[in-house]
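Lecture notes, continued. The same structure-token format from the folding unit now serves as the input rather than the output. Read the line below as a description of shape only.
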């Protein structure tokens, strides 16, 4: 039997080489030949795989990406002269308010204006049926004419008796009687004139006009109702100007009086919370007594209300501008954060790193708020993205034009 020897390895036939092999170990079939080739490729791939992994693993890994700076809007801390206010809660009252009442008896006619209308001084509002008062005026005038004719005769009769008494043709008593009759007729005519005036007044009272410019409430009397003197018909309130009444504590009284001694104290009235509306006026009244139970004093400002948008009975914030304070630090209200430790600002520090500064705040001036301590003039404070940053974070400051500063007006 012939024997063969081959170098160590794997032959295409799939048998080990370098060792004796039996002659009957040959796989003559085509299927066996395919199997042997598959085993050969698998062994080759197994040997090459570690080399491939080593080559790939030897490549240098890319460096980790650095965190980009967070862009944030900023605004500078500014120093300005600001007004000093004393602020209170007050209520508004009408400058003048009257109840419109009937002064004569009669049937109420159709109103000349609707309920709630803004009216001018002297404008016709309501009317009572005037027919009986026209008749009364005519009757008084007729009586006056009759008494005037009687007076003319009395004057002529007295003159005749005067002449006849001088010649002895009549007695002194007849002359005196003629004189008395003349005086009585004069008095009767004067009474007639008074009756005419009263009839005119009653006729005028059938018409109700606005005593001043203002706004009506709702009517209490309907058309066709019989009304009498004293029957209330409506109320009229003057709204421009309007009063703001408030009650400062007596501890503020010396400061207010000292400011008023220098010049009239400006008063500002604000309504609403989100977008408060501002009205201006002056302090015009200080009461002469401090409430013994409340320790407050009643004061009142006269406020311009040209649009009549401020109504009596509203609760308002009243601010007295008593002085001006120079050198006050201001920051946008949007820059103020809040935590359990208090109010704070995020300040852009060295290297654009964020620093947290706890601050003491003062009065609010529009979009700005005064800062008593914690920051200095010129420092940049973050006005947005406050929830995305923290102390130590590096930021990219961006100017915030909507928070450009201007002298505070107290709005």
């Amino acid at each position: 039997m012939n024997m063969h020897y081959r170098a160590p390895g794997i032959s295409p036939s799939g048998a080990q080489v370098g060792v004796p092999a039996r002659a009957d170990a040959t796989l003559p079939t085509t299927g066996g030949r395919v199997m042997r080739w598959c085993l050969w490729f698998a062994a080759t791939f197994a040997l090459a795989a570690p080399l491939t992994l080593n080559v790939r693993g030897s490549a240098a890994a890319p460096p980790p990406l650095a965190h980009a700076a967070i862009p944030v809007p900023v605004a500078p801390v500014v120093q300005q002269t600001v007004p000093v206010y004393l602020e209170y809660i007050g209520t508004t009252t009408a400058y003048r308010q009257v109840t419109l009442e009937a002064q004569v008896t009669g049937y109420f006619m159709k109103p000349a204006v609707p309920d709630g209308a803004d009216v001018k001084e002297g404008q016709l509002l309501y009317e009572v049926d005037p027919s009986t008062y026209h008749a009364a005026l005519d009757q008084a005038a007729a009586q006056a004419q009759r008494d005037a004719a009687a007076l003319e005769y009395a004057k002529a009769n007295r003159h005749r008796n005067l002449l006849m008494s001088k010649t002895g043709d009549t007695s002194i008593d007849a002359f005196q009687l003629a004189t008395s009759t003349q005086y009585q007729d004069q008095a009767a005519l004067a009474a007639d004139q008074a009756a005419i005036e009263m009839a005119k007044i009653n006729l005028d009272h059938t018409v109700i006009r606005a005593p001043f410019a203002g706004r009506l409430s709702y009517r209490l009397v309907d058309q066709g109702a019989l009304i009498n003197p004293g029957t209330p018909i409506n109320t009229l309130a003057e709204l421009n100007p309007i009063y703001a009444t408030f009650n400062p504590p007596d501890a503020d009284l010396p400061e207010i009086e000292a400011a008023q001694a220098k010049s009239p104290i400006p008063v500002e009235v604000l309504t609403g919370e989100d977008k408060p509306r501002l009205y201006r006026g002056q302090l015009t009244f200080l009461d002469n007594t401090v409430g013994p139970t409340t320790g407050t004093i009643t004061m009142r400002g006269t406020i311009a209300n040209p649009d009549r948008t401020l109504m009596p009975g509203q609760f308002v914030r009243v601010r007295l501008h008593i002085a001006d304070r120079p050198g006050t630090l201001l920051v946008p209200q949007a820059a103020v954060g809040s935590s359990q430790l208090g109010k704070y600002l995020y300040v852009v520090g060295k290297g654009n790193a964020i620093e947290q500064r706890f601050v003491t705040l003062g009065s609010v001036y529009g979009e700005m708020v005064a800062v008593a301590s914690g920051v200095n003039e010129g420092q940049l404070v973050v006005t947005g993205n406050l929830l995305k940053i923290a102390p130590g974070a590096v930021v990219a400051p961006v100017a915030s034009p909507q928070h450009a500063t201007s002298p505070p007006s107290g709005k």
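Point for the exam: DSSP finds four helices and 22 strands in the chain.
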